[in-house]
Amino acid sequence: MNIKISLFRTLLLLFTLMFAETSYSQHSKCGTVVTPQQVAKEASLTGSGQNQVQFYPNMCFGKTLSITAHLIADSLGDYGVTEAAIIGSIQTLNTYFAPICIQFEVCKFNYIPNYKYNKFLRQTEEQELINLYSVPNTINIYYPSVVSPIAGTTVGGYAYFPGGPDFIIISRGSLEVIIHEMGHFFGLYHTFETQFGAELANGSNCISAGDLVCDTPADPGLTNSSAPDCQLSPYVKDANGDWYVPNIGNVMSYYSEDCSCGFTTQQYNRMADMYLSLRYYLW
């Protein structure tokens, strides 16, 4: 590789991670969940539960993907968020995807006057939104005031993994969660995921357990946990009696907003692979 290009990309990555530390804000909860169907799909992609994905180290796509932003009115006709605020959140998102040279651009703002979707309930309204408003081959992001995966619960947003609809929904009071949800959209799991098995602190089963990414340390995913001074509290041990030392600042974790350090190299590689394999059709 040309030395100047290599140096430029190294500096770009360092800039991206430095920017991430000051700009990213975590959210209270994500509604993206790993279903049994997703577990089966992952097994079919990787072969008998073993991660055999062909990663693409330092892949640079030079690609800009189109977003259709759907703003949803309340009962007074107020959309509750400006185009400028959404564009600003996408510009921040772009700094996180710069290392693999994928950028995002809002190609259209669609205003939905039907306020029945403003307090969004997934079971009854998701398919209607997709059928009525989603634009093919673009990333459709919807902005209601409330996002409820099930009645009585609220989250900052949720997305679908590759192979699912090109659909992300974000509470307009939680624009910053787009970084986390776009990670899911391109195939990343929570660092504390257990649907594939609990990852051991020593990383010996990182290929087939946890988030299936080996350069994200095992994460116990403590309920109501905190990270004062960017340190796990309380410290806990795994099934072998080894201490968990998770990456407190990973975008796909739930820890302190003051400790963010973006995505890891293998997370970028996984997203690159999922784009090539399952999201390649996006404009």
Can you walk me through this structure?
By secondary structure, the chain is an alpha/beta fold. It has a domain at 57-188 and 263-278: Collagenase (Catalytic Domain) (3-Layer(aba) Sandwich), CATH 3.40.390.10. It has six helices and seven strands, in the order ααβαββαββββαα. It has helices spanning 3-23, 36-46, 83-97, 122-133, 178-185, 265-278; strands at 63-72, 102-112, 119-121, 139-143, 146-148, 157-159, 167-170. Strands 2-1-4-7-6 form a five-stranded mixed sheet, covered by helices on one side. The longest helix has 21 residues, at 3-23. The protein is globular.
Low-confidence regions: 1-27, 48-53
Helix content: 25-40%
Number-wise, the strands total 7
CATH level-four homologous superfamily name of the domain at 57-188 and 263-278: Collagenase (Catalytic Domain)
Q: In terms of structural class, how would the helical and strand content be classed? A: alpha/beta
Note the beta-strand portion.
5-15%
Query: Count of helical segments?
Result: 6
N-to-C SSE series?
Answer: HHEHEEHEEEEHH
Characterize the main sheet: 5 strands, mixed
Cα-atom Rg, whole angstroms?
A: 19 Å
Q: What's the CATH architecture of the domain at 57-188 and 263-278?
A: 3-Layer(aba) Sandwich
Stated plainly, the CATH topology of the domain at 57-188 and 263-278 is called Collagenase (Catalytic Domain)
Span from first to last CA?
Answer: 28 Å
The level-1 CATH class of the domain at 57-188 and 263-278: Alpha Beta
Mean pLDDT across the residues is 85
Using brief descriptors, characterize the structure shown.
Collagenase (Catalytic Domain), 283 residues, two-stranded parallel sheet, globular, single chain, 29% helix, 7 strands, disordered N terminus, alpha/beta
